[in-house]
Amino acid sequence: MSEHYFEVSLDELKEDVIEMLKTIYDPEIPINIYELGLIYDINISEDKKVDINMTLTAPGCPVAQSFPGDIEAKVATVPNVNEVKVELVWEPPWTKDMMTEAAQLQLGMF
Prior knowledge:
GMP Synthetase, Chain A, domain 3, 25% helix, alpha+beta, 110 residues
């Protein structure tokens, strides 16, 4: 990831946030949460506050309580991010179809 502390556009910042999300892996499936399709929405305000809506593979997932905080802490380390809020949402429910083609290939789903 590039270390740039100069003024970045919101698009560049979103790319940096996505790159960080790709380093965070689901505890039960050896694929990152972005490729798994667990990230539903990333909004970044003009004052560099990042709001992420995400889901988990199952509502009863054992990390449901701690995982959002872990993700917030990691995304907060991205240069130029001022604040991060991760919200778990359950609609629409996650399905395997939300995974990228690469993730599906990695799991041998084709």
